[in-house]
Each structure stands twice: as structure tokens, then as C-alpha cells.
Amino acid sequence: MPVTTADKRATFKKMHESGCFIIPNPFDAGSARALQHLGFKALASTSAGFAWTIAKADNRVTVDEVCEHLAALCAAVDLPVNADFEGGFAVEPEKVGANVARGVKTGVAGLSIEDSTGDAANPLYESRLAVERIKAARRAIDADHSGVLLTGRCEGFLWGVTDLNLVIDRLKAYSDAGADCLYAPGIKTREQIAAVVKAVHPKPVNLLIGASGLSLKEAADLGVRRISVGGSLARSAWGGFMKAAREMAEQGTFGELANGYPGSELNKMFK
After folding, report:
1. Which of 56, 221, 232, 258 sits at 20 to 30 Å (Cα–Cα) from 62?
2. Is this structure's pTM higher than 0.85?
3. Could you give the CA distance from residue 231 to residue 77 in angstroms, rounded to a whole number?
């Protein structure tokens, strides 16, 4: 029986009610299908990972490109897909809302909006504007009656704004503005994570884990609901590619090619 978009959205919401799950980040339809094959129950897009597949830097893609990518991911798998929708591809709340409405149409089960400006001198939107942007995203989702889960992200720690109280205040404000899930990428210590979980309870918290960090069990014990890995899987893929390509370019040898995943196994997975 085909899995509908409504099924995916209902499943995704249910997953946030208890426990802790990993929501890995594919960067194209093939990697999404591979993650489904491995048994993951939900996926999340990665702005950086996708950007690199079209030879762009992170945060340099357009809303048209992202919506096309999200539609491809959703069509490739029977799993819920959460969209890294960056900052909504606009500053003004009404434009954020219009873009979120477009994003919802791709079939995603969840969507996040962040508060970073891209300006190192003023890295976060003014608090009131940031809240209005979340409210606009909430209105767009509700107007569509889609049931898409909205995640509010405070990017402070990624931009050197490491005042945990400030980050928590913003997350609580985003929760009040209608965010269903809260996310502060960059927090790492158990104390930081536990404080965020406690502050926004009972709403779920997403935790970013990269090359190091807590295990699934350790994060669950702190009350984290879901774990994403951002661009880490994409970087891992690029790591293998660049190592093999550099060997060929610089040494004229081909030893690293022996470390590739077997083509026969890939063909079985995608059959």
C-alpha cells in the first residue's frame, strides 16, 4: 500500500512524542534511499550537503533549487523528510511565510526556520523580528492544514553568540510563537543540552551531533528527542571522493579506489 504524504506527516509527529531517534541527513535522492535501506525511520535535508552537489557553497542556494531538491527527496523514500529551510530565504516575515508555503507543497513532514542573518557583525535577527518570522511560518503551515512540524532554530552558538541564556530565551519565544520542536545547533556539553531540554519542556529538542559528541543513548538520557548530523554524511562522502581523486591527480596511482562501496551492493539497494 503506497505511503502518502499525510501518512509520513502523521508518523513524523508521532515520533516526537517519546523516545529519541536519529534523523540522518542525505544530500540527494540516492543517499536518501540508502538511509531508508539501512532502517532509519525519518530523514532530514542538509543545506550544505545539497549545496555542494550543485557546486555551490552553503547558504548560496535559491528557494527554487531547494524546493526542487526537497520534492526529489520526498519522492525517493517512504519516510518523513524534515526540511532544512535555512532562514526561509527571505528577511521579511510575510516573504518567509510565502516561501514556507512553497516548501510545504514539496511533501515534507517537517520544516525548520533559523534566525541567523549571515552577517558576522550582527549574526542574529533582532529578537522581535525573529519571533515574527516563526509566527509567519506557523501561519503558512496552518493555512495549508498540512500538519507539517515546525522547528525553530537559534543559531547563536554557530555564530559565536554563546550566551546560553540568550539562546534559551529565543527558543522559548519561538516555542510560544508556534514552533513544535526547538533546535540550538552548536551546543555540546551535557549541561547546555540538559538546560535547553528543561527550558522548552514538554516540546521536543533536536540535537546536532557531528564528528564527536554523545551517543544516541546518552542524548536520550538527557531528554533529547531527535539527533541530526547536518552536513557530516556529505562531508564523509566528499572525504572519500577527494582522497581517491587527489591520489590519482598527485601520484598517478589508484589505491584508494579499492575502498569504495561495492557496486553490486549499490545495484541491489537501488533495484
Report:
1. 232
2. yes
3. 19
Per-residue pLDDT for 117 more than 90?
Answer: yes
Please tell me the number of Cα atoms within 13 Å of 244 on its side-chain side.
13
Backbone angles phi, psi at 245, to 5 degrees: -65, -40
Q: How many CB atoms lie within 10 A of CB 263?
A: 8
- E strands along 21-144, which residues? 21-22, 43-44, 81-84, 110-114
- Cell readout for 191 is 549541561
DSSP label at residue 81 = E
Domain boundaries, the chain: 5-230, 232-271
Nearest to 80 by CA among 4, 167, 161, 179: 4
Q: pLDDT (tens digit, 9 = 90+) per residue, 7-25?
A: 999 999 999 999 999 999 9
* Architecture per CATH, 5-230: Alpha-Beta Barrel (3.20)
- The whole-angstrom separation of Cα 181 and Cα 112 is 9
